[in-house]
Amino acid sequence: MSAARVGVVTFPGTLDDQDAARAVRLAGAEAVPLWHGDHDLKGVDAVFLPGGFSYGDYLRCGAISRFAPLMEQLIPAARGGLPVLGTCNGFQILCEAHLLPGALTRNASLHYICRDQRIKVESASTAWTADFAAGQELMLPIKHGEGRYVASAETLQELESNGQVVFRYLGGNPNGSLNDIAGISNEAGNIVGLMPHPEHAVEDLVGAPSTDGLGFFTSILKKLVNA
Ligand SMILES: NC(=O)CC[C@H](N)C(=O)O
Question: Right CATH number for 5-226 from 1.10.238.10, 3.40.50.880, 3.40.50.10780, 3.30.360.10?
């Protein structure tokens, strides 16, 4: 059986693509580099949109990236069920592309924050969280200036009642996100976005706060292998 292939997208200004590819490989899948200017998804089984400052965060974080040539392929594929995970800038891009509802705005403090953050897994029924248990606590790094999740009261209500709030901040809300939301999914559960960085918490050797991030990558691998 050939290895599951997870595409890792690099935009100009992406920072975390190397860590993302490494995390994919540590979980046992093949990491396939995808460039923002590519016109095809190279037949990958899932896609990871890593963090960073794509297109220099001009206009708003992710606002230009959503128009990258690769997104013309990625948007319909994700709507069709392709598993997609966006972390931090990747989450911002998913919201700007309307693959996830709501928006990420300036942190309430108006300061960039960089620290280890406790979060709670609210839903283990997405493609990227099946290896966790609902209620489980994770410790992951956060580093962002625009992580305050906002959405209309109606959208928030829908997310809550559909079980689309996947992660919530614990031990203090770092950025003023509504309902302490750290991550959400689409209704089908194949698209997940979160502000914390699982790809930076996969190996003890580098002094990561935990190896909790590995669960995202083992979750998707199992799903692809069993598909
Ligand atoms: N680490 C990141 O992906 C940063 C995201 C974005 N550039 C911000 O500051 O909000």
Answer: 3.40.50.880
